[in-house]
Here is the input.
Amino acid sequence: MSEVEPLFDVADPADVDTAARLLTDRYAIGADLAVWRQHGVMLPPEEVVRAVLADPSPPRDALVAALALTPRGREAWDAYEQLLMRLAREDGAPWEVLGRALRTSKQGAQQRYERRQRAVDQLVIHQAVLERPRPTEVARAWLDEHAGELRGVSILVLRHHAELRGLGMAVAAAVHRFSGVHYMLGDADVLAAARQVVDAIGDVERERADLPTWDQVRMSGGCRAAVDRLADLVATAPR
Here is the structure.
């Protein structure tokens, strides 16, 4: 990427892509900065907003750019809420319980879910799905059985996204892609992205296996458990 900072017009802050590029270029550090400069992978909206708020003296353009990104953050949380509701319903949770969790009524939770699901269905209809390879019948059968578990384990892994991105550029890029695919695309895409994350982590672990202990891949207990669970699940899926 160019080392010239992207220009963001404070007087016309509707260009959220430029806002994201500006804040990533200004606040990304370590592996995130390397991935941004080499591959153009931007930080998620919630991370750059937190970075701006943590800045003891943020410039005006950073404040306005962060504000321009907040709708994207809401869209992501809406997608997470929709997915969690679907998984909870598949697990047998009644609408009344979901309503209490969302501080609304049973009917309010159901209407909220159905309204968003109609929007998601419309989006899927208009996606260029034919450009992506379709899963085989065997893979489709696996997804029919394991999609809910795959989505649930994906959420556990993505809770540790910041830690995982610290493992290197390849892992950081795979995790960033996984995060976007997880709430924007279908189950087959999630499986493919999950496999890329598992493979990227495995590659790093093999590369560092002969190094001194302190230079090998180290993860927190929760992160390791989530990654291992994802790897075990992905290993059962047909290619």
